[in-house]
TrEMBL record:
It comes from Gouania willdenowi (Blunt-snouted clingfish). It is a multi-pass membrane protein. GO terms for cellular component: endoplasmic reticulum membrane; phospholipid-translocating ATPase complex; plasma membrane. Belongs to the cation transport ATPase (P-type) (TC 3.A.3) family. Type IV subfamily. PANTHER family: PHOSPHOLIPID-TRANSPORTING ATPASE VA (PTHR24092:SF81), PROBABLE PHOSPHOLIPID-TRANSPORTING ATPASE (PTHR24092). Residues 474-488 have a biased composition (Polar residues). It catalyses: a beta-D-glucosyl-(1<->1')-N-acylsphing-4-enine(out) + ATP + H2O = a beta-D-glucosyl-(1<->1')-N-acylsphing-4-enine(in) + ADP + phosphate + H(+); ATP + H2O + phospholipidSide 1 = ADP + phosphate + phospholipidSide 2. Mg(2+) binds at residues 416, 418, 1021, 1025. GO terms for molecular function: ATP binding; ATP hydrolysis activity; glycosylceramide flippase activity; magnesium ion binding. This is Phospholipid-transporting ATPase. ATP binds at residues 416-418, 686, 728, 752, 791, 871-873, 995, 1001, 1024-1025. Residues 461-501, 606-635, 640-659 are annotated as: Disordered.
Length: 1319
């Protein structure tokens, strides 16, 4: 044991390892060293970050330049500022310089005000956080004083109290908890509400008095700040030079809440922006949508058109000036020097002038309008009550505001299985122990009762009904298909909504504790054996008989349930206060600290002469050094245990039972007056197995760092000393605990994990016939469980001698204190411990499908979406779930790729390609048989099945399903094979990747997205899905049972998978359709208005003059015509929500970008030029040979252009609401109000042109009203007639929208051309 008293207690400051000849002034590079702030004068760490946070971007001085700099990152803003500044040049100006600045100043101001408001909100939040109080040790006053969070610095000692939020990342040095634990809640970091244990640094476990910071004399070396919440590496170096390892279980993170601990003391390791919470606070993610990328191309074309027409006009002006020769016209403008300009210089100046005049061709208001419309669309999506989950009281969350339209263009969906398609609420179904299977039929009937309740509730609440399921099975289908159909039913959600609601009320803070999950009905046969085993053990204990007299089968049964009970990290909570754990330290004997004490306790002399009083007193002074961390490969007191093992190396005692167990209180049952205990588990798997063991009266009743207390039938409460916890991780796929058995003198390893891993770690089959028989039978049952869709875990154990344990402990201690390659050494240390295991049995746990998953998957597939499921489950389980959720169809063939090497994988992919080509591209079945000679058995393909959509690529998708395991997937993702794998996978309707790692998930998504150039969506619920979610074009997180990591990394968050159907098929379709049409309308509107000015250049010598007043030119697009298109872009619905969900085939409209094709831009440009011709020349001929002035002719043209543009919008609007009417009336009213006021305000402002009283005179002329009637109708008549006579001019959705509303699904399908899926 490390003897650390107050003499070891240290000053610390951050200083860094410096390279030779190179001095670093500040910042983190490599490993750092911390010194405590116990100096009386200066703080030892002045050059490192304090705890003050600042998430604002601006200050009063930096706001204007910094905000403008950020806005000028958008090229459009730079362009418009350049045009406005160009207007200040006298020789090229076209408008009043101040007036030309108005639009760009307005746009920049609106954005700046929005940014300022957001930054002010961040400033208020920062101020509130920085001024929170905490207790910090003052070296001057030798006590803890209150300070603001912002005053805390690295090296400060902080006293933490219950329910207090941590102000910084703190290394735990002391706790008021008798077990030196500190419980924290990390909901603000990862969304998980279950309590987590943190352990005092090992060196300070045995302090028997209050921690005194002034006597601290240790040095801490740790890694530089990083954003990994699940990792912390470091060492604490004592004055003697000895090191203790620091791990994440010693670190309390900023933002966490202290629970169940009255008081704790720690030293600040990371402060302020260097804390892990702040390093993970990256703010909202920015993505650029596909539609926006297409729009940028058309903006570029607008620039080209602008340059072309300006160049054309400039050349025309130069030629016009050239024809005068030396005779300059009287209206010619002289140069600033008073000389005549040459035709070339006049053309150059005019080119710049026309750039200013025609600037509205580039839609300055388009970018702001798009942001406004997207915010409104997000608001409407949030208000959709169909996307609200009453059970969890959660709404859809939109975390990325700028890619809503991408939801309507998805082509591939990559989904996790557990917690995404399923509920991640594990229900224990059956198990096998010692090769005997226990079906738990009564438990199955209990679950069936819940299923009937749910079915009755759905039947009562259903309004529309669903498509009937096919019940018949054709004659050529095998029995396996029948089994799939039956198992499909078993994966339906078996708990009613009312039951779920009641469960949530009962469980409150405790996760995974609904009645369905915990009220397990035991199997009578197994329950009888458990009682028989316990009775015999009780008898042998009373008569001090050795363990060997218990039969092997019964021994395996009791060990099986002991493993289920203790091989986990479950925290036991009291029922009335579920956030407070139950302390079960038994004080009849002093806690076991070493193997020496452990052996002496069970000798006859020890059993007869134990002193309770002395033991009780020793509990206070001699605290156990075996304090365990729940992380991977934590070995509390490894050094002390090793020392005692060496001392007792020659001691050998026969394992015997004691007449009275050292931790037995004489009671046969564990009862609390308040009610039953509650289990706070970090995963639903752990909770399900603990509740299953409790059903057999093998209950977990207490957990301490060095001790786990269980209650067994007839034996009462037993305390297992916990030596090590080898935590679960995705690499090892297993968890182990090393304990000392309270009834025998044996060190036992209990292991649970995936069957694919545990089976490889068992003893060789030649060790015994019984074990071989158990392994074979268990493997058969595992296959049956997997075929029934159950999640399987294997349970095993291993008994270590003291010599074996001492050898392993020595190696483990070296690995734990290693500096280089520590993770690999710890992994190898675990592997040495977890080999030659004895198989005890296996469990089958059901993870039920969420409501509506099969219907959602079927609808998404009919919409033309390719769905790939990427899961870590074993192949058989994943396949069965895939059939249950209709991802795989029993009528379609399934290709299974399982390879043991890269060469075998390449051969399988090659043969699969040959088979696909021969089967679906050749007419002869014989050719298919010759081309494919492996185990793939072709089945008949229903040729009448129509495939609903096609994509841009000509590659066909066939009625095939592909299943590939993780090992084969690793080979297939190799650079040499990824193209072949992708060619095979894209030929299949569904792809199922089993046993895939988080890295493989992201690699698959990236491969499909980059190689096929398609839109991808990834959806998941856990931390292992984060990389996949971030790689996809759109990431969706499920706010489920595995915390909020996936949600925080996502663009959208959903409470349930079934809401994805409406999000994509309805809101995605609407968002894409609205924005696509709005963008095209913007281009049309601006081009039409600019063309009016262009036509006038032919009548003014290409001089750059305009017949429209400059006020109208500036504000026409910014004010008069802006509001109606915003309303239409927000509220327009080309098809109703009911139709879009009833006919998912309409989603193909967005997949193929039907609403925004490149030719549509040019068609709108042509239409805009035609309408401008009509609006220009009809007034021109109407006022020909009259004496009206320029503005008397130009003002009607402006009015006609406004009416034509608004009527054009009306033709394109599919859904009319009162807001559409109001916006149009408001725009017209605003135009005439501004015109009347402006024309009545200034008689002599712009001589010689005088706009005074122009609109007033126009309103008195009948000709004006006649023009307003004839011109818009003439301009829009061709478009309207073409739409009516040629439906192909509309998008595919518009084409069928009116028909779909009135005919049924079957007749509608006949209208849609049959075609194969194309990817």
């Amino acid at each position: 044991m490390f003897l650390v008293g107050h003499s070891l207690l240290t000053d610390t400051a951050w200083h860094f390892k410096k390279k030779e000849g190179k001095k670093k002034n500040s910042g983190w590079t490599g490993e750092g060293t911390v010194r405590a702030n116990t100096l009386l004068n200066d703080h030892p760490n002045p050059h490192y970050a304090n705890n003050k946070i600042k998430t604002t971007k601006y200050t009063l001085l930096s706001f204007l330049p910094k905000n403008l700099f950020e806005q000028f990152h958008r090229f459009a803003n730079v362009y418009f500022v350049f045009i406005a500044l160009l207007n200040f040049v006298p020789v090229v100006n076209a408008f009043q310089p101040e007036l030309a600045l108005a639009p760009v100043v307005f746009i920049l101001s609106v954005t700046a005000i929005k940014d300022l408001w957001e930054d002010y909100r961040r400033h208020r939040s920062d101020t509130e956080i920085n001024h929170m109080d905490c207790l910090v040790y003052s070296s001057m006053e030798r006590r803890y004083v209150e300070k603001y969070w912002k005053e805390v610095q690295v090296g400060d000692f902080i006293r933490l109290r219950c329910n207090e939020i941590l102000p910084a990342d703190v290394l735990l040095l002391s706790s008021s908890d008798p077990d030196r634990l500190c419980h924290i809640e990390t909901a603000t970091l990862d969304g998980e509400t279950n309590l987590k244990q943190r352990q005092v640094v090992r060196s300070f476990l045995d302090l028997d008095c209050e921690f005194d910071p002034f006597k601290y004399h240790s040095v801490i070396e740790c890694e530089k700040p990083n954003n990994d919440l699940n990792r912390f590496r470091g060492y604490i170096v004592h004055r003697s030079g000895r090191r203790d390892v620091l791990c994440k279980e010693n670190l309390l993170l900023r933002g966490c809440t202290i629970r169940n601990t009255e008081e704790a003391v720690g030293i600040v390791i990371y402060a302020g922006h260097e804390t892990k919470a702040m390093l993970n606070n990256n703010g909202p993610r920015y993505k650029r949508s596909k539609l926006e990328r297409q729009m940028n191309v058309d903006v570029f074309w607008c620039v080209i058109i602008l340059l072309v027409i300006c160049s054309f006009a400039a050349v025309g002006h130069g030629l016009w000036m050239f024809q005068y020769g030396d005779k300059r016209p009287v209206f010619d403008v002289l140069s600033p020097q008073g000389t005549n300009l040459s035709p070339i210089m006049s053309a150059i100046y005019l080119f710049l002038t026309l750039i200013i005049v025609f600037q509205v061709l580039i839609p300055i208001s388009l970018f702001v309008s798009i942001e406004i419309v997207k915010i409104c669309q997000v608001y409407l999506i949030h208000q959709d009550m169909d996307l609200y989950d009453e059970e969890t009281d959660s709404h859809l969350q939109c975390r990325a505001l700028n890619i809503t339209e991408d939801l309507g263009q998805m082509q591939y969906i990559f989904s996790d299985k557990t917690g995404t398609l399923t509920e991640n609420k594990m229900v224990f179904r059956r198990c096998t122990v010692a090769g005997v299977e226990y079906s738990h039929d009564a438990n199955a009937r209990r679950l069936a009762m819940y299923q009937e309740m749910d079915s009755e509730e759905e039947e009562c609440m259903s309004h529309g009904g669903t498509l009937p399921r096919r019940e018949s099975v054709t004659s050529h289908q095998s029995a396996r298909v029948v089994l799939r159909s039956q198992s499909t039913k078993s994966h339906r959600r078996t708990g009613s909504r009312a039951e779920a609601k009641r469960a949530s009320i009962l469980s409150k803070h405790t996760a995974f504790s609904s009645p369905m999950e915990k009220d397990i009905t035991p199997d009578p046969q197994l329950l009888y054996k458990v009682n028989e085993c316990s009775s015999q053990m009780d008898f042998m204990r009373f008569h001090s008989q050795p363990m060997s007299q218990l039969s092997s089968d019964l021994s395996d049964i009791i060990d099986f349930f002991i493993a289920l009970t203790i091989c986990n990290t479950v925290v036991v909570s009291s029922p009335n206060q579920p956030r407070h754990k139950v302390r079960m330290r038994f004080e009849l004997k002093s806690p076991v600290k070493t193997i020496e004490d452990f052996i002496k306790r069970f000798t006859p002399s020890r059993l007869t002469s134990g002193s309770n009083s002395s033991s009780s007193s020793s509990l206070i002074t001699n605290r156990s050094s075996n304090k365990g961390c729940s992380s991977l490969l934590s070995s509390p007191s490894a050094e002390s245990t090793l020392t005692k093992l060496h001392e007792e190396q020659s001691s050998h005692l026969e394992p015997t039972f004691s007449p009275v167990p050292p931790c037995y209180d004489g009671k046969a049952s564990w009862n609390l007056e308040e009610g039953e205990l509650r289990y706070e588990a970090e995963s639903p798997d752990e909770a399900a197995l603990v509740y299953a063991a409790r059903a057999y009266k093998c209950s977990l009743v207490g957990r301490l760092p060095d001790q786990v207390t269980v209650e067994l039938p007839h034996l009462g409460k037993l305390s297992f000393e916990l030596l090590h916890t080898l935590g679960f991780d995705s690499t090892r796929k297993r968890m182990s605990v090393v304990v000392k058995h309270p009834l025998t003198d044996q060190i036992t390893v209990y292991t649970k994990g995936a069957d694919s891993v545990i089976m490889d770690l068992l003893k060789p089959l030649d060790t015994g016939k019984r074990q071989k028989k158990i392994i074979c039978r268990t493997q058969n049952y595992l296959n049956l469980y997997a075929a029934d869709g159950l999640r399987t875990l294997c349970i095993a154990k291993k008994i270590l001698s003291k010599e074996e344990y001492a050898c392993w402990l020595q190696c483990h201690l070296e690995a734990e204190t290693a500096i280089q390659g520590r993770e690999e050494l710890l992994f190898q240390s675990a592997l040495r411990l977890e080999t030659n295991l004895q198989l005890l049995g296996a469990t089958g746990v059901e993870d039920r499908l969420q409501d509506g998953v099969p219907e959602t998957v079927a609808a998404l597939r009919r919409a033309g979406l390719q769905i790939w499921v990427l899961t870590g489950d074993k192949q058989e389980t994943a396949v069965n779930i895939a059939y249950a959720c209709k991802l795989l169809d029993p009528e379609e063939e399934m290709l299974t790729l399982n390879a043991d090497s890269q060469e075998a994988c390449a051969l399988l992919l090659e043969e699969s390609l040959h088979y696909i080509q021969a089967k679906f591209l050749c007419s002869s079945a014989d050719q298919a048989a010759k081309a494919f000679h492996t185990n793939f058995v072709p089945c008949e393909i229903n040729s009448s099945s129509s495939l609903s959509s096609h994509n841009t690529s000509p590659f066909l998708v066939h009625r095939l399903g592909l299943v590939i395991d993780g090992r084969t997937l690793a080979y297939a993702l190799d650079k040499t094979l990824e193209d072949k794998f992708l060619e095979v996978a894209r030929s299949c309707r569904s792809v199922l990747c089993c046993r895939s790692t988080p890295l493989q998930k992201s690699m698959v998504v990236k491969l499909v997205r980059n190689k096929l150039k398609v839109m991808t969506l990834a959806i998941g619920d856990g931390a292992n899905d984060v990389s996949m979610i971030q790689v996809a074009d759109v990431g969706v997180g499920i706010s489920g049972q595995e915390g909020m990591q996936a949600v925080m990394a996502s663009d959208f968050a959903l409470p349930r998978f079934r809401y994805l159907q409406k999000l994509l098929l309805v809101h995605g379709h609407w968002c894409y359709s609205r924005l696509a049409n709005m963008i095209l309308y913007f281009f049309y509107k601006n081009a039409m208005f600019v063309a009016l000015l262009f036509w006038y250049q032919f009548y003014c010598g290409f001089s750059g003059s305009a017949m429209i007043d400059q006020w109208y030119l500036i504000f026409f697009n910014l004010m008069f015509s802006a509001f109606p298109q915003l309303v239409t872009g927000t509220l327009d619905k080309d098809v109703s929500a009911e139709t879009l969900q009833r006919l998912p085939q309409l989603y193909v409209n967005g997949q193929n970008s039907e609403e925004y094709k490149p030719y549509m831009f040019w068609m709108n440009m042509i239409d805009a030029f035609y309408q401008s011709l009509v609006c220009f020349f009809i007034p021109y001929f109407a006022y020909a040979d009259s004496d009206v002035d320029l503005f008397t002719w130009g003002t009607p043209i402006t009015t006609l252009a406004l009416f034509t543009i608004l009527l054009h919008l009306g033709i394109e609007t599919k859904t009319w609401t009162w807001m559409n009417w109001l916006s149009i009336i408001f725009s017209i009213t605003l135009f005439f109000t501004v015109a009347l006021c402006y024309n009545a305000s200034c008689p002599t402002c712009f001589s010689p042109s005088n706009p005074y009283w122009t609109m007033q005179r126009q309103l008195q002329e009948p000709l004006f009203y006649l023009l307003c009637l004839i011109t818009p109708v003439t301009a829009l008549l061709p478009r309207y007639a073409l739409i009516l006579s040629h439906p192909w001019c509309r998008s595919s959705t518009n084409k069928y929208s009116h028909t779909v509303e009135t005919i049924n699904i079957i007749s509608f399908k006949r209208l849609i051309p049959r075609c194969a899926f194309q990817i």
